[in-house]
């Protein structure tokens, strides 16, 4: 049979997840070997190869992975461009039953001879027996992949619990798994300091884009994205904490908050990794607390920023009508303008009574002074640390004993000294005890609204904080600042009257 009259088939080759162990492989050797085997198969079958459909470094098991060449091959099968598939093995073509069923639909509906040949044997997808045989082999391949995925996940969880660095692509801020990249680390440290002083993540992102910063996963020719900057700043790795995000979570949800996936020891403390940190645990904790505080910035503001012109705009209220006060600049050339510059007033156009005004700087100084006193009292009332809390220490000892009891029960069962029913009851009792103890430990370790170190830093750096940052602290602690009328001419005498200011604290 000449090449011109030989049935035309498509050759499919695939290698999945190459280079996963950092050995530098790109999978080309594997697909080239498959290509040689498939061309040998084509000669034995006396079929012409239309083209080689190659998916290198592409999984056929992961549901969210789209195989571009596989989809093109299906299209050519449907259109009649090719009349069959040649592959090294059926698991190169399909490891998910749904992919096989798509193939079966095409073969059943075709009105021409269709081949599906592999080096391990042929499958006639137009017959009941052929489909049954193919389904069995794909199901076995799927089970093999599921078992392999479980073993890999179990190994990676164990590595995470031991504090070993994440394998694969380097993290931003490090030149490899363990050693800091000083240029990128400097960017992170500067961003941390500036965000704590009120700068938005969006501004940090714009500055990094202007500098041409690129992350390890940034596509060629592009600069780093906003979500990547936020992920970098929230990454527990910055302070040496180990996080582990299961692969199925990554595939299902994409990029998730790494803070939610900290790896913890039995006593609830985070696992520390074996690499150079960029921030201290206190700095990272304050940074995450600050970013968390911005998640609910209030109505009328874009998430991630608290830009407002004046410190008390919308916070100060008129005691007469309850309207939020607006701010405005005094008329230039007046004594009030020279002395204070701006004022807060009840604006009739916004539904207020229009009968109240108060100079801005003295009012703000009064509120700031009271807020700082409030923060100092918070610092004085900071709860006992875990080391000073005897009830928490007892709970941790109990959790350790529960782990030991579980191990003993498993050993007794393995030695056939405990019946299956007794083993099940004992494990249920221990797990229930563990649940209650952990709930107790959570209550005992319940952190205050923020770490004491955060409050101390705010007090220390208040003078250099931006207006936006100060507003965050005011809104965190204060519901409203109510301004009472001073009486006829009372507010114009040049004397600040604190008795006319009532601060309504949050409960």
Structure characterization notes:
The chain has 507 residues and is of the alpha/beta class. It is 46% helix and 10% strand. The chain is built from 16 helices and eleven strands. The protein has helices at 28-45, 68-79, 90-93, 97-109, 128-161, 182-196, 201-210, 226-234, 247-253, 281-293, 335-339, 360-380, 390-414, 420-444, 452-461, 467-477; strands spanning 8-15, 48-56, 84-87, 115-118, 121-122, 316-318, 326-329, 342-345, 357-359, 478-483, 501-505. Strands 2-1-3-4-5 form a five-stranded mixed beta sheet, with helices on both faces. Strand 1, helix 1 and strand 2 (48-56) form a beta-alpha-beta unit. Helix 6 packs across helix 10 and helix 13 packs antiparallel against helix 14 (420-444). The longest helix is centred in the N-terminal third of the chain and has 34 residues, at 128-161. It is elongated, with a radius of gyration of 33 Å. The chain starts with 7 loop residues before the first strand and ends with a strand. Residues 19-24, 296-308 and 384-388 have low confidence and may be disordered.
